[in-house]
Write a structure and sequence with these properties.
single chain; 541 residues; alpha+beta; Butyryl-CoA Dehydrogenase, subunit A, domain 2; 2 domains; seven-stranded mixed β-sheet; two-stranded antiparallel ribbon; 18 helices; 51% helix; globular; AidB_N; FAD
Length: 541
């Protein structure tokens, strides 16, 4: 019918390379992994295909189903996933997002992995077990025997989801299970017990409130041993094929991240093996947390990039009031503001990936920088991500509010990244704890950001204000969010002043550091080079 002619609608954003992002590629080279550019482009082109995007949609809409028993009444404690989920897992594992950096630890390996993880943005849910598998390796190395046995399987590029004797598996996926309903982030309040057994194992009894990817092959978990809170490796299936006593109680009904199951579980005498020293469970698992926190930053920056790209693509193809949306001055202001936020997040993320790579290689200075800069960046970037996604959704108008646009799915994912591995208050207080208890970390941070001094007066002034904030210890906990936000912004600003085009650095310093900025995106002051910003960050539009 003539009334149903389709006019002025935006074509799907498919058939592109999701890694075609200047800040991402420049960071890859700058942080020592330029050799991985072909791998990054290959995965980026795959992520941009209609097939990969559709797999992400199907996996998110087809929620996992819990099966506690079989038809005869036998306990199975299994979760059924859609085939799309397994296809996504297969691709992620085949491209080494879970463990290639450990299996082939050349310089820049973890930088390459971070960039590829950012480019593979088709579904956030399945990347949760990918992230945990990546993160479990350094913590597991606290038990040399377990590490020697399991690390080759945790880093193998073959996804093998069957629940059977680990000795017969071609590859393993790992999970983590720390929080309990009475403690939440206060894991030292955990009540799960671990009783030593004659064979050197421990028997675990307790209830865990959040266990992500509950049918992973192995988990790191915390429990109270005789010597205090300790870290344990708990397999789902024991040697010989017997099921471990890990009972799935229910799956959580979550805001987002729906393709990935999260469960309450009970340990009913489950077999666990000590990892690290007894009573030092939190210290043992810190290495895992470092990796998953970095993945939160990667996920948030990748989500921002996706949101900006979708909004810019829409504005370049949609007309209103006789002109393309992208040519409207106010829309250009919004898009450029979002693009600056995205570039700042990506640039900081890649610098942290480089620090992570060098810290793993033994560089103590980079380890100190990672300690504080990761905490402050995790706080700030993950706080900004939902706002960026919401503003980008609004750029599409009512079309953005419809599930078919994929913008609601993106929007639902963003809050998780701020909650996972320490919500806002936890991350902010952790950063200040590093400043107070590990002053060498602040020295490393200042040594990093001071490399940008003299290049922009607004940056210099912001750094001076930050130093004054840090000299006052009065009411520091009350001011924690303010101080940590300043730490994050100065860190981002230092990187942009040194590495980004002048237009991007100028816009950042004029707003985030000089405060000539409103409370919403799209409030950039006049006099900035918006053309240069939009050309750089939205080349795919």
């Amino acid at each position: 019918m003539a009334t149903h002619d389709v006019l002025n609608q935006v074509p799907p954003l498919v058939g592109h390379d999701t890694s075609d992002h200047a800040a991402l590629r420049e960071g890859l080279v700058r942080e020592g992994a330029g050799w991985a550019l072909p791998e990054l482009e290959e995965l980026g082109r795959l992520a941009g295909t209609e097939h990969a995007q559709q797999l992400g949609r199907v996996a998110e809409r087809s929620r996992p189903v819990l099966h506690t028993h079989d038809r005869y009444g036998n306990r199975t404690d299994d979760v059924e996933y859609d085939a799309a989920y397994h296809q996504l897992m297969t691709t992620a594992v085949a491209h080494g997002l879970h463990g290639a950096a450990w299996a082939d630890p050349r310089p820049g390996a973890h930088v390459a992995r971070a960039a590829k993880f950012a480019a593979w943005n088709v579904d956030a849910g399945h990347t949760c077990p990918i992230s945990m598998t990546y993160a479990v390796v350094p913590a597991l190395r606290a038990n040399a025997a377990l590490s020697a046995q399991l690390e080759p399987l945790l880093t193998n590029r073959e996804y093998d989801p069957g629940l059977r004797d680990p000795a017969t598996k071609r590859g393993l996926v790992a999970g983590m299970s720390m929080t309990e309903k009475q403690g939440g982030s206060d894991v030292r309040a955990n009540t799960t017990t671990a009783t030593p057994q004659a064979d050197g194992s421990h028997s675990l009894v307790g209830h865990k409130w959040f266990t992500s990817a509950p049918v992973s092959d192995v988990f790191l978990t915390l429990a109270q041993a005789p010597g205090g809170l300790s870290c344990f490796l708990v397999p789902r299936v024991l040697a010989g094929g017997a099921r471990n006593a890990v009972r799935l109680v229910r799956l959580k009904d979550k805001l987002g991240n729906r393709s990935n199951a999260s469960a309450e579980i009970e340990y009913d005498g489950a077999v666990g093996w000590l990892v690290g020293e007894e009573g030092r469970g939190v210290r043992t698992i810190v290495e895992m947390v470092n990796m998953t926190r970095l993945d939160c930053v990667i996920g948030a920056s990748s989500g921002m990039r996706t949101a900006v790209l979708q909004a810019t693509h829409h504005a370049r193809h949609r007309s209103a009031f006789g002109a393309k949306l992208v040519d409207a001055p106010l829309m250009r202001n919004v898009l450029a503001d979002l693009a600056v936020e995205s570039e700042a997040a990506t640039t900081a993320m890649m610098r942290l990936a480089g620090a992570n790579d060098r810290a793993i290689g033994g560089d103590e200075g980079e380890a100190a920088l990672r300690r504080i800069a990761l905490a402050v960046t995790k706080y700030h970037v993950c706080k900004q991500a939902p706002a960026v996604a919401g503003e980008a959704l609004e750029c599409l108008g009512g079309n953005g509010y419809i599930e078919d646009s994929d913008m609601p799915r993106l929007y639902r994912e963003m809050p998780l990244l701020s909650i996972w591995e320490g919500s806002g208050n936890v991350a902010a207080l952790d950063a200040l704890r590093a400043v107070a208890r590990e002053p060498h970390t602040l020295d490393a941070y200042l040594g990093e950001v001071e490399r940008a001094e003299g290049a922009d007066a607004r940056f210099d002034a912001a750094l001076d204000r930050l130093k004054k904030e840090l000299t006052s210890v009065d009411d520091l906990e009350h001011r924690a969010r303010r101080v940590v936000e300043q730490l994050a912004l100065v860190f981002q600003g230092s990187l942009l002043v040194r590495h980004a085009p002048a237009a991007v650095a100028d816009a950042f310093c004029a707003t985030r550091l000089d405060r000539d900025w409103g409370r919403a995106y799209g409030t950039l002051p006049t006099g900035l080079d918006l053309d240069a910003i939009l050309e750089r960050t939205a080349a795919l539009g």
